[in-house]
Amino acid sequence: MELDPTDRPAAALLELARSLGVDTTFTGWDGAARSVEASTLRAVLAALGVAAGTPAEIDASLTEQVLAPWRRLLPPVVVVREGTAADVPVHAHPDSTVRVWIIAEDGSRHDVSQQATPTTLHTVDGLPVRESTFVVHPRLPLGWHTLHAEADGREADCALVVTPPRLETTRNLAGHRDWGVMAQLYSVRSSRSWGIGDFADLADLATISGTQYGAGFVLVNPLHASEPCPPVEPSPYLPSSRRFFHPLYLRVEDVPEYAYLTPEARAVVESLATRQHPANLEAGHLDRDSAYAAKLTALETVHQVRRSAAREHRFQTFCAEQGQGLADFALWCALSELFPSDAPEWSVEPRGPRGPFAAANREKLADRIEFHCWLQWLCDQQLETAQRATAEAGMSIGIVHDLAVGVQFTGSDAWTLRDVLAPGMTVGAPPDMFNQQGQNWSQPPWHPGRLAESGYAAYRDMLRSILHHAGGIRVDHILGLFRLWWIPVGAGPGEGTYVHYDHEALIGILALEAQRAGAIVIGEDLGVFEPWVRDYLAERGIFGTSILWFEREADVPLAPERYRQACLTSVNTHDLPPTAGYLAGDHVALRESLGLLGRPVAEERAADLAEQSAMLAALRERGLLPPVGTEPAPTVQQTVEALYAYTALTPSSLLGVALVDAVGERRTQNQPGTTNEYPNWRVPLAGPDGVSVLIDDLATNPRFAALVEAIHTGS
């Protein structure tokens, strides 16, 4: 029901929602303004822990919104840009002496002075409270510090994060161009794979792309952890944890202890590998479960080999550095092997790794917990090897990891980080031109308030893990660091609303961790967004994303000179068919067959044809395709090459070459809005003849060479 803002209770509900960063209206992709339903607002407020069921509750919650900051000695967290003074409000009794100081990341102490301005008084629960302003000095260095305060016989502390005004790593890309391969790693196999692309394949892909073709980076799908044992979720964008990695990608033979297996044990592992190798040539369907089951059996065998003293020391050091987060993740893995996600044991309160269910099993499952910690150590080592291979191949950036928007409801992060997630909510996207029914990604969102209360620790730890062995990170739907589309569980994708986050904190921390890692950041800033967002990201040194088919101005393709410099530009994305399929209209046919169109298929085809015709006309204007009527007509491959040559005319510092386009694949990797209706994320890399393309063949692949040449010619 649409709310009447002239009605007092309705107006109060709208005011309460806005005070908590919950949008009460939004603008659709068609430019029309829409009001958010009252039921949606109440559900979102409930997830935020704010009572709004009755007029009395709404009034009480509005009052509490005003009083809550005054009840605190310090704010929950302070995030400031380097070189900028930060005003920190401190609340205490008017007659009290207030002391504020900082313990910096290096252990040094710094006193904080009170600002010589009048203080403010307020009455809280019948008692006077004074607000004094203390100023954090602008010379405080980048990093994670702790702000302390003492007054009225009580003490408080909070995280004080100093972030870079601008990510310095991107300055090196100004006036310079790199191109890189964009690949779905699981789909890219070699003759030595176990049916699924792995970390060793990643190193080889980077080596061939760098040494043979001159690529500067390789961008891969999220490598986040999934379920600890089969069956596993096929979507890399619906992980169990975003902090830890998927052991599915381990190359068993590269584990050092493999060399010390007994002849009998080695025979077992070799037999498993031999049974999996034929799957590398399977071009129709990827079988993660078979590959993972075989690898886990092999890894359990290798795990029994005693580690050398040096290797044991490195393992223990890794575990200590990862801390409680790794221990909790490994506990979840061990428990998940015993209890399915719907088992009643998971519902014991209080839930999570601090609850009685966890405590009762931590010691009992110690050996299995150690095994899962060991798997994460192996992932870390093999990723280090892969990133080192990119440097040796001459890549200036190396591996660019992809960060998914969220995690599964029944996964590790949802269990271990439940205190900073919003219950009863899922995230997604409202209807847009390409997904006209909207999207529900089945992921719980960060709770903005509780995440801030925690000092953004979980967010920081996640970024550090991903960036540990990386030259860059692509943030999927980076707009979600500004606002996320929250949908009450059980509602349709269109029945949600945007909830805002402290983007200054989230983007600042992202820039801080990337700068410390020497990595670049690419934000996937497609879809519906507020106009100022792209300018803000550019100001902070965060690259954007431009997809050829989406860049239009006044219903015509955007001229290449008008593209952004601080941007990764490519012809397509993993949510569209490879370019050969797109040119054939496969995206329309597929969505029509799945019932995902919001208008008649004839209208959709006509719109698609008009869009493609305009793009091809732009190619002809630039001399990238011959005039209409020229015989013979351009082949599909020549048209694909012309599209990539068009991207090379842009000033964008980064160009992305989809590996599927480089080998002539046509099949879609993922169709948004579906789960099992289409084999999303289960399509192996193959050529136009339907035969699997292995990494072994890429160095001499003529299509790959021709596409790279087209980019160089366009430049």
* Poorly predicted ranges: none
In terms of structural class, how would the helical and strand content be classed? Answer: alpha/beta
Q: Strands across the major sheet, in which order? A: 22-19-16-13-12-27-26-23
The biggest beta sheet, please? 8 strands, parallel
Distance N to C terminus: 55 Å
Radius of gyration: 27 Å
Let me know the average pLDDT: 94
Strand content: 15-25%
**Percent helix among the residues?**
25-40%
Number of strands: 27
Q: Tally the helices: what do you get?
A: 20
Morphology call: globular
Q: Which properties best describe this structure?
A:
single chain, 715 residues, alpha/beta, eight-stranded parallel β-sheet, five-stranded mixed β-sheet, 36% helix, globular
Brief summary of the model shown:
Helices cover 36% and strands 18% of the residues. With 715 residues, the protein is of the alpha/beta class.
